[in-house]
Every structure is written in structure tokens, then in C-alpha cells.
Backbone:
């Protein structure tokens, strides 16, 4: 079966000229339809004003339209204007006028694109200039004299323009707020009305308006109800009235973009809530010790409200590192117990890097660790000659990327050493929880021992056995009330982004004599829509008129596709054959 | 039976390179010497076998290391090449065009060559995962991000091809019909508004312009898919970061550049959907976006510091 469903090129020629804004090559203007008494004739006021608002969806030729397709502005080249409404008796109040004007400015597309571009540029600056460093760092790396970075960028400019903490600078936050305002304005002025429009279906009765649709064709010898039936079988929602038909499918594809913007606003609300209402802090809890959560939390702003878990106490029962054979870390494990104010145990959990502990609105993440003390057994120390157990506190050594902790065991009584000199002793260094390295008083390397092996080492006249490192677990504590909002926004964004790619297809039809004129439009996947419509119209059964002398007429018309399969069936007057012929308008 | 996995992997990567090289040569010869230019079965076989080599290589690495093969730069580059090949095969089969192969096969060849021959050997080893990466989110976040890079890079590449070819073709059009230049402009616009055709032969000017329209539309659709994946990737990364460190956004260079990429393509899509732009103007935005994606994917890792860095170039 040959079907020729051709895009209306006639409309194209009209609309190639003119500003890009009013170029609606392939849509019928709504104004055309007001000629018919039973069609919706009244354009709501919002549509008229929207003709002049930039942030609305025009249908570009290769682009997906429109949240409010086919309903808004009259084409500038059609030569037909809707009758101007009479001026209102009294203007709206100045406040309302100001509100409307502000909304219009904010929902300007060019403004929104400019905002996105500036935010992107400033974010990029923040990745080039290292953030959050000390004043000296910028003085050193962006010098005042000599070769200045980029010829003009000195440390003073960096700090003065807040480029060292650009993401929390006021102008950056204001820009983000402006973007949020633009999103809100766009949703109010354009997208929300589109939802209301979507609920109102509009018929097109005039042949010319149907012909002007993106995809249009005439099905001879068919009935409107059959067209409707075929559409319904393809999951279209079909409405029929007085010889006219309207069907649509995939309304979600039209509402998707609105959902995207609404989800983004929800995310922004969550960000603000978290930024203002959250608590954060980090704490090192040595094995066996405990700490009150509230002492570690710092509020983000005066508006923050205390989470319930702030009064709890966390105790670290154990901290261990799981090492692989090659010495790299497989995982960190902390056994934590949460106690309430009175010391009763609330919960216990083994926390690791991707498994945090949640209690009372506070979450504890395993992010760090340190060594707090080294347990050794020493024979021959200045304290006592026999085996004595020491627990030596360790300190972190700076420099290099990896952790290094050290402690010192004096070989002689420090009080007896001459003032101003350091006593002789043994330095013990550890990088991880597996081995300890020993150095003597002169700083010479003395040996390495595995923790827990029990092997002694002789340094500076003492016999030392390194038994165990007491580690401390580093926990990041966070209470963020905005997270539910942010997650809800994220979830909405995931769903609505995907949904926005669905095609919103609309089909109009009207009975014209013995045949039906069908036209349609789709906001995405136009080629597939054309194919689909073509296939659907192929399934519309042929209905012949009763007069027998029309058999010849049909026989003649049959030659267009030559498929009179069952020439006898064409003489019946009921909806017989499934063949259908179409003519190109 | 002890299987020497590194040897097999080496064999697979070399054969993948060889197959892609032969496929590139084949496409160029086929286009250069004319012939019917709908999709090419031989070319697709070449692509398909390269895809199989890469799939096997990834599976072997998975078996060898015990974790999902997407933990370092080398594996992510292989996965990117894999996604590009898959995407290209789908496009060629569904749109039945040959010409794209001429453009994309050398690009994928360069990518695979860089991955296998330029990357230092120590970066190619599969290393065990650090604790922060031991999570199921690794599979979701990284695959979606790499897939989005593949779609965006392909779409932007097509847009660049559009720009280059449109300069070339429009010159030709003007040369052949200088007196009717006004008509030519209108004709070009009206052709851009017609639906795509599938013949791509360069002798006739009409066909050239239809092909330009096809490129324009294809780049738009590919970038659209890429943008969708990019959104999902960024969101899954944020949720993962919140589960691991309690902070869904820390303005890490990689996060920031992913956000910048997202903003760039949001501009592109809005200029098309809402502003109604077609043709050269969005293609320029897409060309800029091409650079942005590369900076986001490789530039940040190689140059910067932060949670995502490999940092083997010290700047």
C-alpha cells in the first residue's frame, strides 16, 4: 500500500520569512479556528500576553516544541489578526503591574542563558584557582612583583574578589538565587499555564487549518468514527464532537519539562535548607573512648535547629584496618556504639567507608583515622630495668601525602638532661597499623618490627617489643535537614528528564464529505510520528457510499495504487476491505 | 587451566586497533570510490568485531581483578570507546547512512590508539579498589557518566562536521547560482525544514543541503540523549557522595566541570527548544561543548587535584 503523507510545504514558504520568534512553519494558528461556532473561540488572556513573552516555546523546524504548541501566537505572516480586546475599564494596580513586568523580565530566555553562562564561567575560575588556601599561599603563587599570573592577577586581587572561596562568595550565591528566580518566573508565566491548556482540547474544523498541520492527509471514503477507533487502538485519547475529532498521546512528554524545572526548584530549596539549617563537624575518637556528639557539631547558620542526635554519645569500641597482601588498604572498620545522655546503649554498628551510622537525625561517616598511642613493652628503660609496659602517645608528622605518626621513648630521665638539649632516646615511626620503624638518638635507622609479632629490637640499650597501635577513628558528623528535599528533587529530576523525551503527539480530524481530513503534530520524533500516522491511516477501513454507480468511480480511483484486491469487495456498501487509499492534499 | 590474562588482553587490544584501522580504510575507500551509500554490512562487521574485542577485554579485566572494570583511567577510556562503537552501530543501522563512518572511525581509532599506546603502562594495570570506591554506586554512576560522554562527544563531533561541511557546501551553492543568491538562502532554509532523506551523494547541491539537515538533526538527537544521561550521572554521583562523605556537592574540580558541561548543554538544548535556533548557531555551542566535555573527562583528572584525580601530570 502506498501512502503519501506529505508535510505541508505551503506553510513553509510563508513562514521562512519573518523574525525567528514568530516563525511557526508547521503549525496552524489558533485564530483560524474561531470561524467555526462549535470550536473553542475564546483565547484566554494569558495566551495573548504570552505572545510577547520570550520565554515560550516556539516550534523550530528541527526542534521539539512546545509546551503550549499550536495555541499561542498568531503567525505574523498570515495576515489575520484576532480582534483586539476592548481596553479594560481600569488598569491593574501598580504593584500588580510591577509584578507582571518583573516576571516577564525574569523569564526572558536570553537572560537565563546569560545566567547559565556566567555561572559556568565563574565555576571554571574556581577550578583553576585553588580554593580555600591561606593568604600566604596566594601571595606566594600570585606574586605582586615579577612575572604576574596572566599579567595582572596578584594575590591581593584574588583575595579581594573572593576568588579564593568563590563558591561561597556573595555574588556567586546571588547569581544562583537569580537563576532560581528565573526558573520560578518561567514556571509561573509559561509552563503552568501550559498545563491548564493541555487539559483543554481544541478541535480544528476548518480544512485549511487541518491542511496547515505538520503532517496532513485526506482519507477518502472513510468515517470519522473509524479514524477514532484506529487512533484509540494505538493508545490515543480520542474526543469527538460534531464531525470533528481530536486525539492525543503522551501528554507526559509535554508536561515533562515543567517537571524538570519544578524538580530543580525543589533541589534548590533543599540546598538552601541544608546550608542554613545544618550541622557539621568531625571528630577523632580513640579506641575505647567516647565523645558527646554535640561537642563536635558546628551549626552552619544561626537558623539551624538542633537535631535529636546531638545529645547522644558515641563510643568507639574498636578500630581496625583491613590490609591486603601488598599492604594497601582494603577497608576501614569502626565498631561504634551510640549511647544516650544517661549512658544507655541505643545502637551498635560496624561502620566502614560506604556504610555510615545514622541516629537521631545525625549521620556519622568514616572519613579519617589517626594513631593515638603506641603500646610497647620495654626492658632496660630508665624507669625500671625489667619488662615495663608503656603506652606512648603518638603525634602526626607533617609533610608528604601519607600519614606518618611518631613517638619518642627517652633512654634517660629527661629531668636529668642538661637544659636546652634533648634527651637520648628511641624514635618510633609508623605509617600504618602493620609495622613500626625504629631510629636511634643519632637519627640512624635501627630496624623495623611488625606489630604483634613479639620480636624484640635492641636500640639505645633497651629491648623493645612493639605490641599494638591504639588508633582513633575519624568520623564526619552531619545533620542536614535539607537532604530529604534534595533527594526528592533529584528523584523528580531523574524521572522528569527521562519523561521529557517522550513524544507528545496530537491528531485532529474532520469529516469532509465522504472522506476525512486528518492532520497531526508531534513535539519529538517527527519522522517516526509521520510513519506512525501513515500506518494508522492505512488501517482505517474503507466505507463506500450506497449508490451503485459509484462503483465505477471507485474502480477508477483504484488505479492510484492498483490494489483492488477483491474487486468484488469494493462494490459492497459496508466497511469491507481493509485497504485504504489516501490522496495527498 | 591457567589462562594468561595479560597476554590475552594484549592480543585483544592489538586486534581491536587493527580491526578499527582496517574499517577506517574501508570506509574511506568506499566513500572515495562512490557506490551506494546506505549502510555498509562490511563496515558494520568491522565495528562489531572491534566491539567484541573490547567487550572481551573488559570481561577479562573484570574476572582478573574481581571488581567492575571501571576503576581507573585506562578502563574508562576502553569503556568510552565501547560506548562510542555501540552508539555508532545503532545510528548507522537506524539511519542507514554510511558517511558518518568516514568521520567516526578515525576518531574512535585515535581514541583506541591513545588508550593502548600512549597511556603509561603503570596506569593500564588493574589495581584493587580503594575503600571509597567499594560501592554499588560505582557501577551506576561511572557507566552512566561515560555513556553520556560518549553520546555528547559523538553529537558534538557531528555538529563540528556540520559546521565544516556547511561552510564548504554553502560556498559551492553560491558559486553555482550567484545571481539568485537570495533564492539560495531561502531554499537552504526551506530545505533545512524538510524532513530528512536518506541518500547521501555529493554531486547534487540539493542532496548536500538535505544531508546538512540530517547532520543537524542527528547531532541534536544525540546530544539530547547525552544530556539525559549526564543529568542521571551527576545526580547519582551526588547521592553516592552523600552516602560516603555526607556531602552531596563539594565543588570538587570534577564535579564542577561536570556541572559546567551540564550548563553548556542546557544552553544548547534551550536555544533549540525554546529559542528555535537551528543550523550553525547551535552547532557553534556544541563545538564549544566538545572542548568542555574533554576538559571535564580528561583535563581535570590529568591536571588537577581533588577526589577524582589521578594526577600523574604535575602542573
Residues:
Amino acid at each position: 500500500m502506498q501512502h503519501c503523507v506529505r508535510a505541508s510545504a505551503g506553510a513553509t514558504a510563508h513562514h521562512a520569512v519573518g523574525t525567528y520568534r514568530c516563525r511557526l512553519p508547521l503549525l496552524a494558528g489558533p485564530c483560524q479556528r474561531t470561524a467555526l461556532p462549535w470550536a473553542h473561540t475564546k483565547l484566554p488572556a494569558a495566551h495573548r500576553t504570552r505572545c510577547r513573552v520570550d520565554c515560550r516555546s516556539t516550534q523550530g523546524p528541527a526542534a521539539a516544541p512546545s509546551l503550549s504548541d499550536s495555541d499561542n501566537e498568531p503567525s505574523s505572516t498570515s495576515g489575520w489578526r484576532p480582534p483586539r480586546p476592548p481596553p479594560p475599564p481600569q488598569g491593574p494596580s501598580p504593584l500588580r503591574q510591577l509584578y507582571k513586568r518583573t516576571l516577564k523580565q525574569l523569564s526572558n530566555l536570553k537572560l537565563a542563558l546569560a545566567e547559565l553562562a556566567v555561572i559556568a564561567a565563574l565555576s571554571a575560575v574556581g577550578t583553576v584557582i585553588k580554593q580555600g588556601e591561606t593568604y600566604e599561599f596566594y601571595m606566594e603563587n600570585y606574586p605582586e612583583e615579577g612575572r604576574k599570573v596572566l599579567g595582572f592577577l596578584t594575590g591581593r586581587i584574588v583575595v579581594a574578589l573572593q576568588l579564593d572561596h568563590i563558591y561561597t562568595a556573595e555574588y556567586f550565591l546571588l547569581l544562583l538565587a537569580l537563576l532560581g528566580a528565573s526558573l520560578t518566573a518561567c514556571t509561573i508565566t509559561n509552563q503552568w499555564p501550559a498545563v491548564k491548556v493541555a487539559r483543554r482540547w481544541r478541535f480544528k474544523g476548518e480544512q485549511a487549518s487541518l491542511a496547515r498541520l505538520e503532517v496532513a492527509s485526506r482519507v477518502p471514503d472513510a468515517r470519522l468514527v473509524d479514524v477514532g477507533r484506529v487512533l484509540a487502538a494505538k493508545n490515543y485519547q480520542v474526543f469527538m464532537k460534531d464531525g470533528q475529532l481530536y486525539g492525543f498521546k503522551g501528554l507526559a512528554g509535554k508536561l515533562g519539562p515543567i517537571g524538570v524545572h519544578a524538580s530543580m526548584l525543589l533541589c534548590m530549596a533543599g540546598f538552601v535548607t541544608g546550608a542554613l539549617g545544618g550541622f557539621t563537624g568531625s571528630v577523632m575518637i580513640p579506641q575505647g573512648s567516647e565523645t558527646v556528639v554535640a561537642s563536635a557539631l558546628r551549626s552552619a547558620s544561626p537558623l539551624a535547629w538542633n537535631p535529636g542526635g546531638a545529645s547522644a554519645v558515641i563510643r568507639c569500641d574498636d578500630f581496625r584496618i583491613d590490609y591486603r597482601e601488598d599492604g594497601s588498604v582494603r577497608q576501614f572498620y569502626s565498631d561504634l556504639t551510640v549511647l544516650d545522655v544517661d549512658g544507655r546503649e541505643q545502637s551498635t554498628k560496624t561502620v566502614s567507608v560506604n556504610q555510615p551510622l545514622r541516629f537521631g537525625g545525625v549521620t556519622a561517616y568514616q572519613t579519617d583515622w589517626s594513631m593515638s598511642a603506641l603500646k610497647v613493652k620495654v626492658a632496660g628503660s630508665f624507669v625500671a630495668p625489667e619488662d615495663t609496659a608503656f603506652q606512648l602517645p603518638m603525634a602526626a608528622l607533617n609533610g608528604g601525602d601519607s600519614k606518618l605518626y611518631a613517638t619518642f621513648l627517652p633512654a634517660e630521665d629527661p629531668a636529668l638532661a642538661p637544659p636546652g638539649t634533648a634527651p637520648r632516646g628511641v624514635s618510633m615511626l609508623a605509617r600504618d597499623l602493620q609495622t613500626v620503624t625504629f631510629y636511634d638518638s643519632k637519627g640512624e635507622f635501627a630496624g623495623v618490627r611488625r606489630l604483634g609479632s613479639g620480636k624484640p629490637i635492641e636500640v639505645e640499650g633497651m629491648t623493645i617489643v612493639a605490641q599494638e597501635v591504639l588508633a582513633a577513628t575519624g568520623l564526619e558528623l552531619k545533620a542536614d535537614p535539607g537532604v530529604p528535599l534534595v533527594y526528592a528533587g533529584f528523584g523528580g529530576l531523574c524521572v522528569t528528564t527521562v519523561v521529557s523525551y517522550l513524544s507528545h503527539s496530537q491528531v485532529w480530524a474532520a469529516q469532509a464529505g465522504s472522506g476525512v481530513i486528518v492532520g497531526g503534530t508531534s513535539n519529538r520524533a517527527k519522522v517516526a510520528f509521520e510513519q506512525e500516522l501513515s500506518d494508522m491511516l492505512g488501517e482505517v477501513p474503507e466505507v463506500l457510499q450506497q449508490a451503485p454507480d459509484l462503483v465505477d468511480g471507485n474502480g477508477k480511483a483504484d488505479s492510484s495504487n492498483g490494489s483492488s484486491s477483491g474487486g468484488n469487495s469494493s462494490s459492497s456498501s459496508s466497511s469491507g476491505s481493509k485497504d485504504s487509499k489516501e490522496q495527498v492534499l | 587451566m591457567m589462562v594468561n590474562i595479560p597476554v590475552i588482553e594484549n592480543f585483544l587490544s592489538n586486534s581491536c586497533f587493527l580491526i578499527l584501522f582496517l574499517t577506517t580504510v574501508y570506509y574511506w575507500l568506499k566513500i572515495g570510490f562512490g557506490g551506494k551509500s546506505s549502510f555498509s554490512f562490511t563496515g558494520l562487521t568491522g565495528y562489531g568485531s572491534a566491539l567484541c574485542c573490547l567487550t572481551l577485554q573488559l570481561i577479562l579485566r573484570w574476572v582478573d581483578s574481581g571488581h567492575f572494570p571501571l576503576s581507573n583511567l585506562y578502563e574508562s577510556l576502553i569503556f568510552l570507546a565501547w560506548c562510542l562503537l555501540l552508539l555508532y552501530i545503532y545510528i548507522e543501522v537506524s539511519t542507514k547512512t554510511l558517511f558518518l563512518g568516514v568521520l567516526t572511525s578515525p576518531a574512535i581509532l585515535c581514541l583506541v590508539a591513545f588508550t593502548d599506546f600512549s597511556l603509561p603502562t603503570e596506569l593500564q594495570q588493574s589495581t584493587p579498589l580503594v575503600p571509597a570506591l567499594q560501592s554499588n554506586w560505582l557501577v551506576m554512576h561511572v557507566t552512566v557518566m561515560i555513556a553520556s560522554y560518549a553520546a555528547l562527544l559523538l553529537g558534538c563531533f557531528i555538529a563540528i562536521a556540520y559546521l565544516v561541511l556547511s561552510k564548504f557546501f554553502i560556498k559551492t551553492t553560491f558559486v553555482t547560482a550567484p545571481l539568485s543568491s537570495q533564492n539560495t538562502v531561502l531554499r537552504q532554509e526551506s530545505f533545512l525544514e524538510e524532513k530528512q532523506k536518506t541518500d547521501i551523494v555529493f554531486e547534487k547541491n540539493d542532496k548536500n543541503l538535505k544531508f546538512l539537515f540530517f547532520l543537524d538533526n542527528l547531532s541534536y538527537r544525540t546530544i539530547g540523549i547525552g544530556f539525559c544521561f549526564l543529568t542521571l550521572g551527576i545526580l547519582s554521583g551526588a547521592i553516592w557522595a552523600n552516602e560516603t562523605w555526607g556531602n552531596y556537592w563539594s565543588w570538587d574540580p570534577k564535579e564542577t566541570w561536570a556541572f559546567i558541561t551540564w550548563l553548556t548543554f542546557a544552553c544548547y538544548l534551550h536555544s533549540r527548544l525554546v529559542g528555535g535556533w537551528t543550523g550553525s548557531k547551535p552547532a557553534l555551542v556544541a563545538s564549544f561543548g566538545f572542548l568542555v566535555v574533554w576538559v571535564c573527562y580528561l583535563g581535570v583528572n590529568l591536571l588537577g587535584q581533588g577526589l577524582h584525580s589521578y594526577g600523574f601530570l604535575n602542573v
Observations:
- The longest strand of chain A covers residues 362-379.
- The mean pLDDT of chain A is 76.
- Chain A is about 30% helix and 25% strand.
- Residues 170-199 of chain A form the longest helix (30 residues).
